[in-house]
Design goal:
By secondary structure, the protein is an alpha+beta fold. It has two domains: about 120 residues, no CATH class; about 250 residues, Cysteine proteinases (Cathepsin B, Chain A, Alpha-Beta Complex). Strand 1 and strand 2 form a beta hairpin.
Amino acid sequence: MKKLLVLVVLMLLGLQIVTIHVHASSTMDAEISQFIHEYSLVEPTWVGARVHSSEKLYGIDNQITGYLFRVYQKNIQQGYIIYLFDSGIMEAKFTGTDRALDIKGKVYYITPSGFLSKKQVDEYYDVLLYNSQISTTLTASGYGEKITQLEYDENDLLEDYSHNDVTFTITTSHVPDLSSNVSSYYISMVSKVWIENVPSYLNGLDGIYGSCAPTSGAMLIAYYDNELWNNLSTLEGIWTGQYFPLFHEDDEDLVNDLIFVMADYFRTCIDMDGDLSSSANCVGSSPVEIAYGLSRYLDLHWHPAYEGILGYFSTDYDDYTSLILLGNPAIVNMFYHPTYGNHSVLAMGFYNAYMSPSGIIIYDNWDHGEVWLSYSVVSYYEFIYDI
């Protein structure tokens, strides 16, 4: 009876009803239906779409944590929705298939777009344990106090990097005005805002283990090099102002070179001359290392006025949307998250919905294409800023 009442209410609202063929709760049914209805207003691939099949998702403790729902339009898969029992809708994609289709056996969901096998999860979990031993302190005091302390204890790498009590305001006095690159849809209280011409690169093609942060950094630097400054790249044997491709595969060697450089600046690997495919050597980059690496890169590439700024997503979401509206992407981090672990991606837009959850638009580095991600899973974000 409860499920029937939910469906009747939805019908009275004039919503499309989506039948989910799993043993799911009526609340989950209603949330998925509402989500598809609202986002179909700004995503044409979801007009008339419905859930066709589902996949159980497991966490690192081998327990079922939620479902992947595959969305079809006219018998063609057009993305998916991730629903976690303890969090609701966490992720969605509006076109194409999903990487979980390639996995035999249980599908583990650890990072956005990161559908892993049991063997991969075991390896990833070991890396999480190693990363948790790195002493990184990030503290803030109250709304409006962006970052009051940045400390990194390993070898005093960042001893000269601290912006105590720094606050920032996203205006054209502090960030580049690239608003001409911004596109948007606003339909019936649902909106989509995104930045055009942002490159999409993949961390699986560069040969560096745990390279999500430098891959995201390479996208950011390539975007500003292509769209604004024309002098951010000085790779060996390459002219300053080299145009970077929008897709990794279009010039794989060039993009890999830039990712390698960003990995060096972000301290992704302990030894950049060592085995870059080793999880013992390449352990990833913390938000502090990313912000510091951006500052150092801009210093040495003729733009010392700009710093890499680290913000708290939970209190700075309005600043993030202002950043996007001016055409500036940001690197966002899911840092020590219980479900997502450590992962960094490039964010280049946002959605606002009426009854469904709103979210950010990311180019994840596991695969090409826009991904909707709940901003509730984002811990920190880094962007360039003229202090």
